[in-house]
Give the backbone structure.
Amino acid sequence: MMNATKQIGTLEDRKMVDTNGLQAMLSSGRKTAIEIGTAAQARVQVGRRVLWNVGKIQNYLDAISE
């Protein structure tokens, strides 16, 4: 039986988020969130879990916005 992952702090305070957290952070759907995360090269695989590096995503969004 798997243990539930504890959610600590707000999304802005985290270094890594799961895909649902990435969707919430970007206010987007799953497909768009994954596209942005992949373009930012922010995907981190830990075992079977996929996490996203929030710092890389923020830097990527800053770079593509004007």
